[in-house]
Amino acid sequence: MNVNGDTVTNEGRDRLLGDASGFLVTIGYAMMLKSNRDVSRSAQAVATCVQVTGDLATGIRSLIGDRNYYSAAGLGRQVLESVQLIQYLAANPDRAEFWLTATDNQISRASDFRPGRLRAATASNDRTYSRHCFLGGHPRSIARMLLPGSPWRRPDEIIDLSSAGFDIQTDLQALLLADSLQHLYDAVLVTIDYLDVEAFHELGSLKDRSVNLTDELVKSLVEWKRTDPLAKVGPNEGG
């Protein structure tokens, strides 16, 4: 199966990544304005993490577009962690307030904010985290596969995923775009679930258009996950 056909293309993935990251940046800002009005520290914490995730994803999109694939993989790990933080803080307002006001020393001593505990609390996949660390954590020799000179970077190079159990042939850009979309799919859904709809009023005259665009974004993400074989492949695969 070649996934770069008419229905799922890198151009389409790139546009959807731009829409999703833009949503998180914008709605995160609106959430921050609303939380400031409400003087809610827990909501301020979640809004901060939503903005962080959108900002990181915007950076990933630019890096992929510039073929800076190793840098994109590095930010990918941070997106994974920031999405888990949104999920955890949204479900635990007392810990969200702690996170917002804690010193570095207090955070380092808080066991629930350690990567393993955070993954457990959000039912996240340990293997997903390990693979992100392998590619984009501390510099390792695997970086050669993403840097200039790697055969994976050739425009006509096809990566065969059959050895990983998938009947898919694709390319490096597609894998990186799809991985980012996997995490932003989770980020958008948890943000909308947490969102106080009154936050849209903070966008002023753009409120109605923003609501409509949000509905369209969710539909597009759901359709992407249903139709793109890469939605279940790679660092974010199940198991």
What does this protein structure show overall?
This protein is mainly alpha-helical and 239 residues long. The chain has one domain. The chain is built from 9 helices and 2 strands. It has helices at residues 10-38, 41-65, 69-91, 93-101, 104-109, 115-121, 126-136, 172-194, 207-227; strands at residues 159-160, 169-170. The protein has a two-stranded antiparallel sheet with strand order 1-2. α1 (10-38) packs parallel to α8, α2 packs across α4 (93-101) and α8 (172-194) packs across α9. The protein is globular and about 55 Å long. Residues 1-7 and 235-239 have low confidence and may be disordered.
Helix amount, in percent? 55-70%
Distance between the termini: 22 Å
Anisotropy-based shape: globular
Q: What's the oligomerization state? A: single chain
Identify low-pLDDT runs: 1-7, 235-239
Number of helical regions: 9
Strand content: under 5%
Mean pLDDT over all positions:
88
Taken in chain order, the helices and strands follow as: HHHHHHHEEHH
Task: Report the radius of gyration as a whole number of Å.
Answer: 18 Å
